[in-house]
Design goal:
The protein has helices at 2-5, 8-20, 37-49, 92-99, 117-127, 149-160, 180-183, 196-207, 211-220, 225-233, 236-252, 256-266, 268-287, 301-308, 313-331, 336-347, and strands at 22-24, 26-30, 57-59, 66-69, 105-108, 137-141, 166-172, 187-192. It has 351 residues and is α/β, with parallel strands linked by helices.
Length: 351
């Protein structure tokens, strides 16, 4: 199973510490969003409390970092994911954790942009009590890099003197996102992106996606199976085809650009994906003369070949940068409609 999921290192490492019964009191799962860290954390909590698990103790030892590649997970992980039948997925603790009703699995998520001091104080109040029914209590801090200074310092006290039978799982993009005093007390388990081929195979085998479409979405997903699934859920390839046709219409009739900007601005939830789609399309038009084998939109190779020849590479580069500038503007909370209108002016060739 490990070869198919691409989860070799985290499975082996976490499975080994479960088998040894000596779990570090704080683990930090790092890697880009969408690589399965949340699912692995929940699955590990299930395995720690599974009725078939050996008795566990927590340790403050910090062995070297383990590299990992993220892979496809069910909710949260398949039975036996960590070896030795753990988690079983059917006992009462497993079912309670799976359903989100286990009193000793504590999850902390950001309240807005930050994870705040009030949330950590509430957590510490709970940690002052003994675990209710679990073998071990597991604290999962999603997006641990959002801990503000006060919250981080409050959490540090618990990491320095961890409560009995308590394991902390901190999830972050990279360990350097954490306060140094916190990161130094956590054993890192590193997740790295899936290969394009692995994602494509998962989409074909598990989601029933056409192989040609799966290859495009996998290249678009940038190593994240979760992201690939979201692209499919939002009809990403049909949306791409519509955007490409709309872009061609804007080049022919530049005044249509304002109408397209208004339409894109209204679709706030899809906007980031739309802009990324446009940028990948323009990127393909740029690279086709030099490296056609590196296209993302391989299912539209003929169209890309015909369009690419119509302009010099530097013109495609200018359009690519126009979309990139719009994405940067939106990340700075600049007015969406204005940013998109400027982008359309540049895409239409009027600038």
């Amino acid at each position: 199973m490990t070869a198919r999921t691409g989860q070799e290192w985290p499975i082996r490492y976490l499975g080994r510490i479960l088998a040894n019964g000596n779990v570090p009191h704080a683990l930090c799962f790092t890697g880009e969003d969408g690589l399965g860290k949340e699912n692995v954390a929940l699955g590990f909590a299930m395995a720690c409390n599974c009725e078939g698990a050996p008795a566990l103790s927590t340790s403050r030892s910090l062995p070297g970092r383990r590299e990992a590649a993220a892979g496809p997970l069910t909710a949260p992980v398949p039975a036996g994911f960590f070896g030795q039948g753990l988690p079983c997925g059917v006992c009462v603790p497993c079912r309670k954790i799976h359903s989100g009703h286990h009193p000793d699995i504590l999850r902390v998520k950001p309240a807005g942009v930050w994870t705040r001091i009030g949330q950590i104080r509430s957590l510490l109040d709970t940690l002052a009590l003994k675990p209710s029914e679990g073998k071990v209590r597991v604290v999962i801090l999603s997006q641990a890099g959002t801990l503000n200074a006060e919250a981080g310092n409050a959490l540090l006290k618990a990491l320095e003197e961890p409560p009995d039978r308590t394991i902390f799982l901190l999830l972050a993009v990279q360990k350097s996102d954490l306060l140094p005093t916190i990161s130094s007390r956590c054993q890192e388990v590193r997740f790295v992106p899936l290969s394009t081929g692995n994602i494509a195979e998962c989409l074909v085998e598990r989601e029933g996606v056409d192989r040609s479409a799966a290859g495009v979405v996998a290249a678009w997903a940038n190593g994240s199976l979760d992201r690939a699934r979201r692209i499919m859920e939002r009809s990403g390839l049909r949306r791409r085809d519509w955007l490409v046709d709309a872009l061609a219409a804007v080049e022919a009739r530049p005044l249509l650009g304002m109408a397209l900007a208004e339409l894109l601005a209204a679709g706030k939830e899809d906007l980031e994906q739309d802009l990324e789609c446009l940028q990948l399309w323009l990127r393909d038009l740029l690279v086709y003369p030099f490296a056609p084998e590196r296209l993302v939109n391989k299912d539209r190779t003929d169209k890309i070949a015909a369009l690419s020849a119509r302009r010099e590479p530097m013109e495609w580069m200018g359009r690519f940068r126009a979309v990139e500038a719009a994405r940067r503007s939106l990340n700075k909370n600049i007015n969406r409609r204005l940013a998109l209108e400027v982008m359309m002016e540049r895409l239409s060739g009027r600038w």
